[in-house]
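Researcher: We're teaching a course module on how sequence relates to structure. For the next exercise, students receive a sequence and then see the predicted structure as tokens, so they can try to spot secondary structure elements on their own. Here is the exercise chain.
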Amino acid sequence: MAASRQASAPSRPVRNARRRVQSYHEATTSESSEDERPAPPSRSRSRRQQVSVDTAAAERPRRSTRAPASYREPSTDEDLDRVISRFPEVLTNGAAAQQAHVLSHRSPPRKSRPGNNSPSKKTKSSTRDSPRKRRRVEPRMSEEPTTAPSGPIPPWTTLPYHILFNIFLFASYPLVDYREAIALPSGKWLVDIALLCRAFAEPALAALYHTPVLIPAKKAHRIVQLLSQPQESLAINYASKVRELLVDVRYVLAYKSGPGYFDLSKLIEKVPHIKTLRLYHRLDGVAPLMSSTQTPRWTYRDSIFDTLKRCNVRLHTFDWNARFMDPSNLVVMMQIRHREAPFRGLRDVKLFQIPSDERVAENDQELEELTETKLAAALRELPELRRLSFTDCAVVNEVLLPRLPTNLTSLTIDNCDELTSQSFAPFLASHGSHLRELVLKHNRHLNLSFIVGLAESCPNLERLLVDFIMHNWPPYYNGTPHFDQLLRPGEVPTWPKALQVIEMLQLRNWDKARAAAFFSSLVDSAPDLKDLRRIVISATVQMSWQDRASFRKRWIRKIERTFLRKYELPKSTAVEAAPADDVASMPVKRQSARIAQQRLSGMDGDSDASKTPSGATTNTDTEDSDVDDTEDMYVQGMCDVVQLRIDNLRPADMQFNEDDFLDSELSGDEEWNGEDPEPDDSYAW
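Model: And here is the predicted structure for the students to work with:
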């Protein structure tokens, strides 16, 4: 009997080798688990059940017990400790020390209540909490260290009011995109600055209301309501902060919005301190007026001018636009209004869409009836006029120019088809002595012949901006200039001594000889241009690409060497001098800049030069002479910006290159967190 028991003993299952059945029962609280736990079965019954369970477990395929990958961030300190203990190698020494410091400052764990967490408890708890009991995920702190500004923090709050106002006004400009008629986020930024501290409140709000945002029209109605409130109920006098009114006629005045049509005269009554009043159309300077015979939807109202006179407003800037009134009637109104007090002090006047008179004057009486003569008389009624701008005005011609005021300091002529060099050069000779800024853009019939006597005609000129891009507008519908030569043979430019900025874009319709004379005149005038700080020139020269490559390389090197400022980094005082033995053992540096320049010429990034065929020969003697000539040139060396582009590209408002089409995404995988996922070895079926 004992032998039979010993023989059958190995067939009995060992208690330690028993396999527990995996439970899918959700974990509950401690009390409910103990109350609902069934009574333990008897010993014989448990043995039979265990044998059947082992048999069933051996028959069915073994399932992977690895927990599924979870992308949930650690929500508690226990979860974070579990991740750290599993992957200790991802912690650096600094991170491990920081983790130890955090663990040392944690609060001690809570003591469990007796009877709830008994050691004999065998119920398997779920690895995930239920959605209702899941703890709120705390935001993970950024691992990037925050760098504090070096040095002492300036006392911004102690700055005077006018300094803070200028800072905020400059940083927030512009508040509105006038082309798209939308408000920009800079207005919200000023509000946030005003709420930052008491010292910033009034300067930031003054910058916000300096040019109030009137787009959309509902906002214009709300501004009038705010300014209509009694001053006793307001903490700041907003009406005294308003200095400029920029009104989009189409979006604010021409259509109903909110309570109805916006009455501009009511707004002017609330802001008597304004100095600038501009009534503009978003297509000004973008598209010309197709027909002057069409009836405008909104016209200049007499109530606006009466309110300006009644409120004793003194304007400095105003715009006259033929989109809002018939041109002939507009010029007559200008003559009347310029004699009134609100307009007598005008310093800046902008004119839009005023056409020329098609009549030909045969005597003095007919000449006085022309639109050009009446417009010149209206402008001469302004004794303080200093800045004058014409945009899309065919009225600028040989009749108007001699009759303009002689005390102008700034003149802008944009897309005026009847302006020619034959009429413009005499105007500069008689009216250019006070000019400090000259802007000429998109004028189809104007070439550079007027620049021959520019130094003598405009001795005080500081800014010269010329753009030869032509718009594809009616009646021509092409972008080509209507002159044969940019500079005629024998014409050499002269440059005023007071020049500070030279910007000449899309120079074209000239050959290599004219372009060389143009650049030579600029280099030869370098000793006199002591105030020049910015040079931007883009040109298209008619020549072969081999000659253009060498021409570009020569003049870019010469102009940059003459005008570009060279920045030298300050020497560090902490660097110790090298020992005498080390200095003696160092190789002797190359003393010939000419040889080094020849070596580096093959590494130049010139696109045209890189295409030179193998059979072509380069004119090394010419390049060597250029290098020798640059050694004796005068070096002005005061320009912060020197940009010279010489190519044969098609003229465009914006030139694109290879960098504009490259992907801006950074290389590498920035989302990798340092943990490689474990491969899943389980079957999908």
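Model: If you want an answer key for the exercise: The mean pLDDT is 77. The CA atoms of residues 489 and 682 lie 86 Å apart.
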